[in-house]
Amino acid sequence: MEYKLGFIGTGNMGGALAVAAGKSMDPRRIVVANRTPEKARALAAQVGCAAAEHNEDVASHAEYIVLGVKPNVMRDVVRGLSPTLAACVRAGKPRVLVSIAAGIPVAAIKACLEVDVPVIRVMPNTPVLVGQGMLLLASSAQDPGEVSEERFAEFQRMFAAAGDFERIPESAMDITGGVSGCTPAYVYLFIEALADGAVQTGVPRGLAMRLAAKAVLGSAAMVLETGKHPGALKDAVCSPGGATIQGVRALEAGGFRSAVMEAVIAAYEKSAEMK
Question: For 267, which of 1, 7, 182, 259 could close a Cys bridge (C-beta 3.0–4.6 Å)?
Fold first, then answer.
């Protein structure tokens, strides 16, 4: 059977994308594989799609192939798929590789292939699991036009339930990934810290977590929907001599702004090292 979309690697991000795809298209047109077959079968049961025993089975039968493996094994996985992909191309079966690995440029993936196959590079983030993700899309820096507009549009239709999309040059992938792909972890830490502070003052843990998460969600919506600068929105909350400005003062004294900036820069530098 032929499939429209296949996944090789069903970890946290690969699995989240498979779930989103299953909501956007007929899940019977999706196939998944993982080095632990039981994990692939469990995800397939959740999504309602097919499970394959081997990576080569996905490459043989799926048009779009999402490579959801770790950056340190990406090249080995692609080399292992190369003969199968070459056979497909020679047989007139189009294939498109989709890489979600941080720090691995399209050129490095193509260098592992026997034949030329279009590659879409994607930087998603974990909120795709609840339909609130941001997916950064890029094609090869050496040949930006190798992935057609029709291919990009089809990809976005297959993952419509994942969230929003932003097309960027591949040269900007590592820079923007440090804020888009990594930020959920920073925000989870921030929410946890907000809740811990509330618990210390006597708020029950469950309520503290809900209040903190909802405040962050609403604040993000304010930035996106009003178009106002975050600094202006912050100023609007801070009454002269009030509680909020005292809290802001404490954050500034603790180096909050600098710490966040350093986190984004550190993530970018790590991604750049992986090339």
Answer: 182
